[in-house]
Amino acid sequence: MTLAVRTKTSVQAGGRVEIRSPEPTPGASAEVIVLVDAPASQHVMTAASLLESDWVGLWEDRADIVDNA
After folding, report:
1. Dmax of the chain from CA atoms?
2. pTM of the model
3. Which parts of 1-69 fold into alpha helices (H)?
4. What angle do CA 44, 51, 68 make, to 5 degrees?
5. How is residue 14 annotated by DSSP?
6. Are 5 and 22 spatial neighbours (Cβ–Cβ below 8 Å)?
């Protein structure tokens, strides 16, 4: 039987994350997946900042790809 535990916690100094299982079984195996929420400012690009970035025209000079409509 698999017990799933979902909890939110804070990342501590040194990247340490502490979780506790409601029914700990000593010696049981566990698989842990850590999803870290990054600040929103790291994910948001405005149209203006996108146009100023290196993303626009990234493949402009590639000889191995043709332009499409």
Report:
1. 61
2. 0.40
3. 47-52
4. 110
5. G
6. yes
